[in-house]
């Protein structure tokens, strides 16, 4: 059986081919799966996609008609997949249930420290032999307040690093994490977290309830000199509202590894094209904004785990069982214990 993997990065390909060798034939394409490219998947019973695949109902219908039975996505996020349509079409969908939370947590801190200490500006200056310190003044993180929005595995890893810096810890989530509480985290309402935090980092999934969680109201609650970091999902932030906040001279720094309209832009070379996304173009003009192209997860450790989980999802499907990463078909709830 040959499996088609789409949206494969050059560094990722060697890891996929290594783990799949001797088990399954694998065809890797750099092309992302969209309505325009979905004919490439015709005849493949199993396909593996990246988080930037556009798997809406129209694409899923073409996949089902072409013989696809399993979509094994190489990410934890799955907001790009119409799960209801997949279930209706009889498609099995699986994701990576877990990979190194440290990859994303450490990268979020990389953005935060780079912004706080003006690293990009300083490095650019020294390359031009300009060794002045004007405009490079930062702040100690120690003693200041960090607000962690979402304290799952990644948020908890981010919190442990913040504790190492000696920061006051504020958290917001549907339920407190005992390990974070043990570190001294105080769980508060979101408005309180936004108002009191010097550094705010987002680590919640993108769901209907969290879409534009950080909009005009939330941004207005933040300190004028706060630093905002998003290494989770672009749709958590209302980008237009963020531009207006920055235009007003507010926020000390913004670090974005994700952007709500990143599909078709991130992971591509657009250097010879006109940027037609006015909001993204405007964000890139602010000297206190640092944008990277969804690379927080991109470590050898995380990719090893992602590839292993994808292979496990394929094994589970062919064995007729639902694994930890299976999203569709939904597994029935466990029966209540006998009285």
Automatic annotation (TrEMBL):
Matches recorded under InterPro entries: D-isomer_2_OHA_DH_cat_dom, D-isomer_DH_CS, D-isomer_DH_CS1, D-isomer_DH_NAD-bd, D-LDH-like, NAD(P)-bd_dom_sf
The organism sits in which domain of life? Bacteria
Which Gene Ontology terms cover its molecular function? Answer: D-lactate dehydrogenase (NAD+) activity
Task: Describe the location of the D-isomer specific 2-hydroxyacid dehydrogenase catalytic domain by residue ranges.
Answer: 7-322
Q: What keywords appear on the UniProt entry?
A: NAD, Oxidoreductase
Entries under PROSITE patterns matching the protein: D_2_HYDROXYACID_DH_1, D_2_HYDROXYACID_DH_3
E.C. number, please? Answer: 1.1.1.28
Q: Which residues cross the membrane?
A: none
Pfam families, A to Z: 2-Hacid_dh, 2-Hacid_dh_C
Q: What class of enzyme is it?
A: oxidoreductase
UniProt domain D-isomer specific 2-hydroxyacid dehydrogenase NAD-binding: residue ranges = 110-296
Q: Which family does the similarity line name? A: Belongs to the D-isomer specific 2-hydroxyacid dehydrogenase family.
What's the protein called, per UniProt? 2-hydroxyacid dehydrogenase
- The record lists the organism as Streptomyces fildesensis
């Amino acid at each position: 059986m040959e499996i088609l993997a789409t949206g494969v990065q050059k560094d990722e390909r060697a890891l996929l081919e290594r783990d799949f060798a001797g088990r399954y034939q694998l065809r890797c394409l750099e092309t992302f799966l969209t309505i325009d490219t979905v004919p490439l998947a015709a005849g493949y019973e199993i396909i593996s996609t990246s988080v930037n695949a556009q798997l809406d109902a129209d694409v899923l219908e073409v996949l089902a008609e072409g013989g696809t039975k399993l979509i094994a996505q190489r990410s934890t996020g799955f907001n790009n997949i119409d799960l209801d349509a997949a279930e209706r079409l009889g498609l099995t969908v699986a994701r990576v249930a877990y990979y190194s939370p440290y990859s994303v947590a450490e990268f979020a801190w990389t953005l935060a420290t780079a912004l706080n200490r003006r690293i990009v500006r300083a490095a650019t200056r020294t390359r031009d032999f300009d060794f002045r310190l004007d405009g490079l003044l930062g702040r100690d993180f120690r003693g200041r307040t960090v607000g962690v929005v979402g304290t799952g595995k990644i948020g908890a890893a981010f919190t442990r690093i913040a504790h190492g810096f000696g920061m006051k810890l504020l958290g917001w989530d549907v339920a407190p994490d005992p390990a974070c509480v043990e570190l001294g985290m105080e769980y508060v309402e979101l408005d309180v977290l936004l108002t009191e935090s010097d550094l705010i980092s987002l680590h919640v999934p993108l769901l209907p309830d969290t879409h534009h969680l950080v909009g005009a109201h939330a941004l207005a609650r933040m300190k004028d000199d706060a630093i905002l970091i998003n290494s989770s999902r672009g749709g958590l932030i209302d980008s237009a509202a963020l531009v207006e906040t920055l235009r007003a001279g507010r926020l000390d720094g913004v670090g974005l590894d994700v952007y709500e309209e990143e599909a078709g832009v991130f992971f591509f070379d657009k250097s010879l094209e006109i940027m037609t996304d006015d909001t993204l173009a405007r964000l890139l003009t602010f000297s206190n904004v640092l944008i990277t192209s969804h690379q927080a997860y991109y470590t050898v450790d995380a990719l090893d785990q992602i590839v292993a989980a994808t292979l496990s999802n394929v094994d589970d499907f062919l064995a007729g069982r639902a694994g930890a990463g299976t999203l569709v078909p939904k597994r029935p709830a466990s029966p209540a214990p006998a009285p």
